[in-house]
Specification:
heterodimer; A: 224 residues; mainly alpha; Four Helix Bundle (Hemerythrin (Met), subunit A); 6 helices; 72% helix; B: 262 residues; Cytochrome Bc1 Complex, Chain D, domain 2; two-stranded antiparallel ribbon; 4% strand; elongated
């Protein structure tokens, strides 16, 4: 990771006229982002609460079902996301120090991590489909009743598993798209100490994605 | 970072996460992940597993929020906003859980069928004959089951299609005690409900109470009609103490749904 400041410390930024200053504009953007984060918590909370409640009700079935998940892959994904949170934080501090090389490098690492996460996820998903553990009867797929003949509520576990990790994976895909956009802007020299708001906002979003996974992993894979 | 602080009111510094702090938080997160896996998979804390896993996850979350998301260096307002989200999540979880697990067995969300001895309520000898005690019990049930909402508190029907208990005409199943019990067992389409949650003794008590509205004498009953509703008139207690009947329990929300469907 290069640490010598290069390039664009002298980036000009003209804040929108209805703000007192660039600082005011930044703080406003940040507040808006935090409010969005609150919404995201509530967005995921519906599924989390459903999972908690039904896990209590059908404890045995859920436990049996969760044994089917590969916790090693889950742990790998956890590490990948923690690394990506770290690299996105490094990208932002690079911008704050006027180090464009640092921004670009760390954005690439973050993108690689999000790609890695999605690769592991698709391996997991395809394995489930292969074993007939995809609980929705669409695309001609059928739920494998024999696999959990004595634990009928295992299907509910898998419904929640796919909904929760699927919603999360969707957020990862969106995040990856945002990082590509940020990379292109950084390459054009748009970010520096005077202006790095989009980086900061996307960083917050990405840390939230990491937060959700920090809870999903133990809940689904370890103590489900 | 003076470009951000042109104005007096925006004089706060934008905190830069140092390499050192960032690296330390990163390593802490990796370490806590390792601990999570070890405690869940390779130790035996039994039912504490869940709590431990959630506590470690919260510690990791706190580290990400404080340092990577910068809440430690941010304004109080932003901290309050974000943490309020978790407060609402907590309210959602706790209130839902409290509702579900504070219900007594007969009010659970999925109501079980419980087997009860048929003789519930005050003990009745010859329950096909009224007594003051039976009538008082019947009156209590009449109100508890909201019979008066259609049949009136004095037996005169409020609902036009409901039976007027003061009159002797139009009783679709008949006016005999056993026949009133039969109506309570099966209902009458489209508007009169069946009452499967009432025991047979309760239904008999209600039938006796309904008789009190009508000045005409109660028509004579017979053994066949009683047997049809599970009462044995040759026995003193109608055979009800010894009989075991399955009583459906009706969970509150399902009852509401059925009521709405009507």
């Amino acid at each position: 990771m290069s640490s010598k400041p290069t390039g664009t410390s002298g980036v000009e930024h003209h804040h929108a006229h209805h703000f007192r200053s660039a600082g005011h504009e930044f703080d406003t953007a940040k507040l808006g982002m935090w409010v969005f984060m609150v919404q995201e918590i509530l967005f995921f909370s519906a599924l989390f609460v459903a999972f908690f409640i039904f896990r209590q009700k059908y404890y045995v079935d859920f436990h049996e079902a969760s044994l089917e998940l590969d916790w090693i892959m889950g742990a790998v994904n956890t590490v990948i996301l923690i690394v990506s949170s770290f690299t996105v934080a490094r990208a932002i501090s690079s911008a704050q120090k006027g180090n464009t090389e640092g921004i670009l490098e760390n954005l690439i690492y973050t993108l690689l991590c999000s790609g890695g996460f999605l690769v592991v996820k698709s391996i997991e998903y395809s394995s489930k489909v292969h074993h007939g553990l995809f609980p929705f009867e669409i695309f001609g797929l059928k739920w494998n009743v024999e696999a959990f003949a004595e634990h009928p509520q295992a299907r509910l576990f898998f419904i929640l598993y796919f909904l929760m990790t699927g919603l999360h994976a969707l957020h990862v895909v969106v995040g990856a798209g945002l990082f590509v956009w940020l990379y292109r802007r950084a390459k054009r020299g748009e970010f520096g100490p005077a202006y790095y708001t989009p980086l900061e906002m996307t960083g917050l979003y990405w840390h939230f994605v990491d937060l959700v996974w920090i809870y999903l992993f133990p809940l689904l894979y370890l103590v489900g | 970072m003076s470009q951000y602080n042109e104005n007096e009111e925006d004089q706060h510094e934008h905190h830069i996460l140092s390499n050192k702090t960032g690296m330390r938080v990163f390593l802490l997160l990796l370490f806590l992940t390792f601990i999570t896996v070890i405690t869940a998979k390779f130790t035996h804390f039994g039912s504490f597993n869940f709590l431990i896993a959630m506590l470690i996850a919260t510690a990791k979350a706190a580290a990400v929020m404080a340092y990577f998301m910068g809440l430690k260096y941010d304004t109080t307002v932003n901290r309050l906003y974000f943490l309020s989200g978790f407060l609402f999540l907590g309210a959602f979880l706790i209130l839902t859980g409290a509702d579900m697990w504070s219900r007594p067995p007969e009010m659970r969300v999925t109501g079980p069928v419980i087997k009860v001895v048929a003789g519930q309520g005050p003990s009745f000898n010859r329950p096909f004959e009224p007594s003051a005690e039976i009538l008082a019990h019947g009156k209590k049930l009449y109100i508890e089951n909201a019979c008066q909402t259609c049949h009136g508190e004095d037996g005169v029907n409020i609902l036009p299609q409901a039976r007027n208990f003061k009159k002797s005409e139009g009783w679709k199943n008949g006016r005999r005690t056993s026949e009133i019990v039969y109506t309570l067992v099966n209902g009458i389409a489209p508007l009169m409900n069946a009452y499967p949650t009432l025991s047979t003794t309760d239904k008999l008590a209600l039938a006796h109470y309904v008789h009190t509205f009508n000045p005409d004498p109660v028509p004579a009953d017979d053994a066949e009609s009683f047997k049809r509703v599970g009462v044995d008139p040759t026995k003193d207690d109608g055979g009800l103490a010894a009989a075991v009947e399955a009583r459906e329990t009706m969970p509150v929300d399902f009852a509401v749904e059925r009521y709405m469907e009507k």
